[in-house]
Fold:
Amino acid sequence: MRNEYPRPDFKRDSFVSLNGTWEFCFDDYNVGHKEKWFVKHDFDKKIEVPFSFETKLSGIHDTTYHDHVWYHNKLKDIKLSDNHLFILHFEGVDYYSEVYINGYLIKDHYGSNAGFQVDITNYLVEGENDLVVYCFDPSKDRSIPRGKQDWELEGHAIWYTRTTGIYKSVWLEQVDKKYIKNFFVRTKLDRYCISYDVEVSEPNGTLEIIVYDGNDSVKNSFKVTKKKNTYEFCLPNDFVNDRIWTLQRPFLFDINLILKDDYGNVVDKVNSYLGIREVKTENGKVLLNGLPIYQKLVLNQGYYVDGNLTAPTVEDMEKDIDDMIAMGFNGCRIHQKTEDPLFLYLCDKKGFLVWQECAENYGYSNLNQRRMINEWIDIVKNNYNHPSIICYTPLNESWGVEGIPYSDEIQNYAMSLYYTIKSLDPTRLVISNDGWEQCKTDLITVHNYSHGREDEVEKYEFFTKALSTRENILRFENINRYIINPGFIDENQPIILSEFGGVALTKDTGKKAWGYTSSNDEEKYVDDLKRIYKAIQKSKCIVGICYTQLTDVEQEVNGLMTFDRKFKVDPKIIKSINDMLKID
Structure:
């Protein structure tokens, strides 16, 4: 059972995990509202939260279509107080959800990519309380953000088993009526200046921000005059002592945010951490703390055999990161999902870069625009304090924005996503449309799987030439798509080959096995990888890559590891291949 504190970047000393066994039922005829299941119902199943009913770890493991589902749990031993509130947190629910306390609807929420919370205090009674959650996730609707979740009954090609309902942690916190609602931290290398945007529930009292390095501390106190305040201070040079967040030494300072009332009493305390780093681009390169880096990323779908989009344990997340590092990667591109905050914390701790995406939809409309913009606002807020995240990717391969090269309206939508994210978080890079057909963007990214088989010499030579120079990479003919849309210009952004490879090792795979190209034994597989990397090595302008992909996922068998996380070849061999790529 997943009982760890769900958000290490915003941690209180006490909480109640609601992960575990809940009552559950399908509502295939959609009668639950009419029959008031939120008041009383005989739930006929048990489910292990936070695993969706499609997974083995849920205890149900039913992968057929069930669009309407209901959950029930008891909140026990509730002790009410005039001075305290109860905040209920959901880290991820797919797709539409309603939350009921003792038969009262207190919250509805659209979107699976970001968590939400709700104050349930006014609906509670002393002792035992009923918590009911209704979820609606239309299995075949391609217009909602669904990412890699298949609309067909069984997974096909690059789409996989669906995830319905609660799939991330649920927990309850009791807080004072005067409490810290959230905060966002920005860091600057210049004089080690720190900026905290802090939101509190009531505009009074004092906020202390204490920075620890393991031995010493720096404390700053500020008067709270508004619900939303910005506090700025600089850390002394001799305190920081060059301990900034780098790939080689990802130093994290511990942080305490302590809220006191007007009488000096502590009413709330949040524990967090801080990594001092800056990300920017310059002269066609990506700079981390002013130094150029060659990003060696691997595409990480974040699916697990028994948990689908939900990692079985924190140890499984950590093993994934350690395995990627062992293969010589310095980061990953989280593909078509938002990752667990615990995964991001481990990346922060280990100095492992992250590109953050979200589950996308497959159709353009005004409604879908609003859905995606709203979700990205929440995604940025949820992930703001993780130094490992250096890039956001709101769109991928023109999914949901087909026709973007020829439509001012769709281009304006893509740019609205770019500028919305940049306005919320100017500290990170944003890719407008990863792979091709890009508008305003901080990186020019290219997807190219056209390396061909070993015997397709002409195809490989074309692939090598297509990557060789900036001019060649931007040519329409290479992938029969615009890299930069008409009307936009090359601004000398860094060029990243953000999808390539996808080679399947096909021995011991089933009939449905799928990959871009394939090799049938380990030696040929390694030779194929070296052949592809050599073409990239010859490029005069590529400053980063993202290999497809970390693991096999269901029928897609082009991972460097099997779906159950076994290396297909010695990770030292993969590392030696990655070591071929260096920044000039």
